[in-house]
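Q: Please design a sequence for this.
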């Protein structure tokens, strides 16, 4: 299944994704892993492009391997990602609804760096997964 909106994550987006605690109402900055921690636990698998801040697998063969075997290594990945996206979108900071201006929207994207990815992709990740209904019903 191809992503409808496939893009590499920035280090900030990855930090926010890993920092989300399910069923919480805000992002606790204390849970954001540092760049050094991410590099340490992913040594040999990923690299961080210093200019763009994008996290990438070190080699295309690594990508090919994970594309073939990810369901064996991470059988609940789609459910986990969907739950993170939905939890993020349910944060109190978004209770005001849609943005009233382009400037307000740009500021939301800047301060909530996972917002764009979560809004565009939660449904894609939820589709093959059986996720907690109470999260979806709160949208």
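A: Design:
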């Amino acid at each position: 299944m191809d992503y409808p909106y496939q893009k590499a994550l920035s280090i900030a987006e990855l930090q926010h994704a890993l920092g989300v605690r399910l069923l919480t109402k805000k992002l606790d900055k204390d849970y954001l892993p540092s760049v050094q921690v991410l590099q340490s636990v992913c040594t040999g698998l990923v690299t961080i492009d210093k200019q763009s801040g994008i996290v990438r697998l070190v080699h295309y063969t690594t990508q090919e391997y994970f594309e073939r075997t990810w369901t064996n290594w991470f059988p609940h990945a789609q459910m986990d990602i969907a739950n993170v996206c939905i939890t993020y979108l349910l944060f109190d900071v978004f209770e005001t609804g849609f943005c009233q201006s382009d400037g307000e929207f740009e500021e939301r994207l800047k301060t909530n760096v996972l917002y764009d990815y979560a809004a565009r992709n939660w449904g894609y990740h939820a589709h093959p997964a059986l996720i907690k209904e109470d999260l979806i019903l709160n949208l």
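Q: Thanks. Anything notable?
A: The longest strand covers residues 46-48. Residues 22 and 87 are 6 Å apart (CA to CA).
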